[in-house]
Write a structure and sequence with these properties.
Layout (H helix, E strand, L loop, with lengths): L1 H25 L4 E10 L2 E11 L5 E3 H8 L5 H9 L6 E3 H6 L4 E4 L4 E4 L30 E16 L6 E2 L3 E10 L5 E9 L5 E12 L4 E8 L12 E8 L10 E3 L4 E4 L3 E7 L2 E8 L2 E4 L12 E6 L5 E6 L13 E9 L14 E12 L2 E9 L4 E11 L2 E14 L2 E18 L3 E12 L15 E13 L3 E12 L6 E12 L2 E10 L4 E12 L3 E8 L4 E8 L7 E10 L3 E11 L4 E11 L7 E15 L2 E5 L5 E7 L8 E5 L5 E5 L5 E4 L7 E7 L12 E4 L5 E7 L5 E9 L2 E2 L4 E6 L5 E5 L5 E7 L2 E7 L6 E5 L6 E9 L1
Parallel strand pairs: 1-6, 40-46, 47-54
Antiparallel strand pairs: 1-2, 2-3, 3-4, 5-6, 7-8, 7-9, 7-38, 9-10, 10-11, 11-12, 12-13, 13-21, 14-15, 15-18, 16-17, 16-19, 19-20, 21-22, 22-23, 23-24, 24-25, 25-26, 26-27, 27-28, 28-29, 29-30, 30-31, 31-32, 32-33, 33-34, 34-35, 35-36, 36-37, 37-38, 38-39, 40-43, 41-42, 41-44, 44-45, 47-48, ...
């Protein structure tokens, strides 16, 4: 079996390598435009586009890069770096390094990593407090009343199933949406509901909120998933909350960090676990809280991404690691959260909150450039957890410490406990433009330490610790060493694992190799992978893990957000006793989406039958404002209704945005469309392109810039009556009236438009509506009337206009 797996892997690797070698011979000069995430001091800050050759480092979009850097790097330092750069739209990574920016290309993650020195750092972790934060008054105002809804039908067909009946299962409906009253500074009601075929409605979440944009504070009531820090757990509460949420303000709804490096799912979902850019496992997880230890195939040195699909098309990502993030705040800045409400005795969908009243909250403040402190509290009348937190910056690196004590009722006794955590992160520059990151973390738990709602009488571990050293090396390679150990309590086994991984980019082919050793089980694990990318959306990946003898082969066409996009993924997984095949497809239309997923699993050496399941989703969005309504692909996060003026009726209008390369929506013969907005509190530009625009027709603004709040709705009309271009030549007594000025005044509205003539007496007036006008020339007595008739031709030539 091992030989078969090895043969399959070698075959996949040979095919991808052979194709890359064949392409390299003729395509050395070819460059691809890709989108790269950018990290600054280990923190992902955004995406930029860059050109990359087959065997070269990227050439980045300088404007996009410096726009991101202004959020984290001091302006004087940026100005100094900019002064050393050559002019041009695209700048090579090597040129940025020569200019003083410590930037490296990580081919393993297709990411650009930047390390800023202490002198370069802006000391501003939370972006909304920056001097460059967007001013809502600079953008089109959203409607004072708006409602957006995305409705989905979810179907499942079991061809062959081990459990349950075969055939078509009951069809479910899903409704996700909002109602906003008051516009940008108003109130927003968000809801997420499921509808069974029996008519039963399941509430996944209903929250009424109001945001204070200037202070970054959200007030909320309803189904609250509170923000947490330190050792705090994430209990669902029915109640009220106030919290400072910088950045996007609106938090993730489906996946969020949960205390000490956990994953929290609000509802059942399909979860893709991605390590080193490879989807190593697809899991069907029930709603609940998970620790990284629940995923035994994750190495100690790995950063892990979780992609979640709960069936309604919402796909969000959480990045987790054994190592905590830098928690320093800028001096004088504070973040906080406070939630008061009731727990549920039986957590799940449509929680009844029939448990005790509980409180959870924290407060953290930046004391100076190098020190942040905080305190946190969770509790009910029977149990409580109090924590202290501090983060320190020094020339040696960043340190953070968490200390928590608890008191809880176990049987009839009141038990107390404690927990302690220490983290370290250091960034170092090595010779030859190499960098190193050292990370350490250690946790200790007393026997009866508890957190709110964890339902644990005894902590399963006495202590755990992890260490990681990562090196970005020349020649597009990186090396990582990791270790993890823990001491179990009672029947819980000890852990002691070590691993080392190496990644290297060969043209279009990215490779990684990892070797791990489990000192407790005395077992060696090898993991090897290879991936091939072409274009900016297609890839083939394969990997083999000796721990569970699992071979993976995956091909995908990444999704885009424009109209008519078709994306797909095909995966094959070979385990010891199981073959698993999965296929996904997604089509994005103008006013709807369609997704299908098929899985096929067969066990070898077992009497259990094969399992084949097909799931499908159809969804559409509806946006409503006082000015009208329209359907779109999605509308539950925010939308802009765009319609054509009657003078453009029947023509196709493409609507582009910065987050899609093609038309993200289209006004067509069906009329207005609801354009989905990407995310609240992110400036977005909507570009307008009219196909077969009549000659001389002036559509007015060719771009609409919006800055949506939570639950935003907009209305835009493309074109107007005043869309004609009028030209003519002024003549008097046989001579041209050249270099003259005058006015064209509507006899209906009284609105006057000024014009001037050229040396031949010819004038041009734009954005004129059909009607009768009085034409006057300054300095000449009298006037003349001209008529602009409504017609298909928007360019109106009045010919010679003679004055007495």
């Amino acid at each position: 079996m091992k030989r078969r797996n090895a043969f399959l892997f070698i075959t996949a690797a040979w095919i991808t390598s052979a194709q890359a070698a064949a392409d390299t011979a003729s395509d050395d000069a070819q460059t691809l435009e890709l989108t790269f995430p950018v990290s600054i001091n280990g923190r992902l800050t955004g995406n930029i586009t860059a050109d990359i050759g087959l065997r070269s480092e990227p050439r980045v979009d300088a404007d996009q890069l410096f726009s991101l850097l202004t959020k984290s790097i001091d302006q004087s330092a940026l100005a100094e770096i900019s002064s050393r750069l050559p002019s041009g739209k695209r700048i090579a990574v090597a040129e940025l390094r020569e200019a003083g920016l410590n930037i490296t290309y990580n081919p393993q993650a297709l990411r650009l990593d930047i390390i800023a020195t202490e002198d370069q750092t802006l000391r501003q972790v939370l972006s909304l407090t920056g001097a460059r934060k967007p001013d809502p008054s600079d953008y089109y105002g959203q409607q004072k009343y708006a409602s957006g809804l995305t409705a989905s039908l979810l179907a499942e067909y079991r061809h062959d199933a081990v459990f349950g009946d075969d055939g078509l299962q009951p069809i479910e409906g899903a409704l996700q949406g909002f109602v906003n009253v008051g516009g940008f500074e108003g109130f927003t009601l968000d809801y997420d509901l499921r509808l069974a075929d029996t008519g039963k409605v399941t509430r996944n979440g209903v929250v009424l909120s109001k945001d204070d944009y200037e202070r970054g504070i959200r007030y909320a009531a309803g189904d609250i998933d509170p923000l947490v820090t330190g050792f705090q757990s994430t209990p669902g509460l029915g109640g009220i909350s106030v919290s400072r949420q910088f950045g996007t303000i609106q938090p993730f709804r489906d996946v969020r960090p949960s205390g000490q490096q956990g994953l929290y799912l609000e509802r059942d979902a399909i979860v893709d676990v991605v390590i080193d850019g490879v989807a190593v496992r697809t899991l069907n997880l029930s709603a609940g809280r998970y620790e990284l230890r629940d995923f035994p195939f994750i190495d100690a040195s790995a950063d892990v991404q979780f992609f979640v699909d709960d069936g309604t098309g919402r796909r969000q990502v959480a990045s987790l690691s054994l190592f905590g993030a830098d928690s320093l705040l800028e001096p004088g800045l504070s973040v906080f959260s406070a939630t008061l409400g009731f727990l549920s005795k039986t957590p799940g969908s449509s929680e009844t909150y029939d448990g005790e009243m509980a409180f959870t909250g924290f407060y953290e403040r930046g004391i100076n450039r190098n020190l942040t402190v905080g305190v946190n509290l969770q509790g009910t009348a029977k149990e409580a957890t109090l924590g202290l937190k501090t983060a320190i910056a020094s020339r040696l690196g960043r340190f953070s410490f968490d200390l928590a004590g608890s008191s809880s009722q176990v049987a009839s006794d009141q038990m107390s406990g404690y927990a302690f955590s220490a983290d370290y992160r250091g960034l170092f520059t090595l010779p030859s433009n190499s960098t190193a990151t050292i990370e350490l973390v250690a946790n200790q738990y007393s026997e009866h330490f508890s957190t709110l709602g964890d339902d644990m009488d005894v902590q399963p571990r006495e202590w755990d610790a992890a260490a990681r050293a990562s090196f970005q090396l020349p020649a597009a390679s990186s090396l990582t060493f990791g270790a993890r150990a823990s001491k179990g309590r009672g029947a819980v086994p000890d852990e002691q694992q070590y691993d080392v991984s190496l990644s290297k980019l060969f043209g279009r082919v990215n490779t990684f190799t990892s070797v791990g050793y489990d000192a407790v089980a005395r077992d060696v694990t090898a993991r090897i992978g290879i991936s091939l990318r072409w274009g900016d959306r297609s890839a083939v990946r394969s990997s083999y893990n000796s721990r569970n003898e699992t071979f993976l082969l995956e091909a995908e066409r990444l999704p885009r957000l424009q109209v008519g996009d078709l994306s797909a993924r095909l995966g094959y997984e070979r385990r010891r006793d199981l073959d698993f095949i999965s296929a996904d497809g997604l089509y994005r239309g103008n006013r709807g989406e369609a997704a299908v997923r098929h899985t096929y699993a067969i066990s070898e050496g077992s009497s259990a039958p094969a399992t084949q399941v097909t799931t499908a989703r159809l969804s559409t969005g509806l946006g409503v404002t006082p000015q009208g309504w329209a359907f779109g692909r999605r509308a539950d996060e925010g939308f802009a209704i765009v319609r054509a003026h009657r003078s453009l009726r029947g023509r196709t209008i493409d609507l582009g945005t910065g987050y899609a390369r093609g038309a993200v929506a289209r006004v067509d013969r069906m009329g207005a469309v609801a354009v989905p907005l990407l995310q609240p509190y992110i400036p977005q530009a909507m570009k307008v392109e009219v196909r077969d625009l009549p000659p001389g027709y002036d559509i007015g603004a060719g771009q609409f810039d919006v800055f949506p709040g939570a639950g935003a709705g907009y209305n835009f009309t493309i074109g107007s009556d005043a869309a004609y271009t009028v030209v003519g030549t002024l003549v008097t007594q046989g001579a041209d009236l050249y270099l003259s000025t005058g006015t064209l005044t509507s006899l209906k509205s009284g609105e006057a438009q000024s014009f001037f003539t050229n040396r031949n007496g010819r004038f041009v007036v734009e954005r004129v509506a059909p009607g009768v006008y009085e034409l006057r020339v300054n300095g000449i007595e009298g006037s003349t009337r001209v008529t602009v008739n409504e017609s298909e031709e928007a360019y109106v030539d009045l010919g010679n206009i003679t004055f007495p």
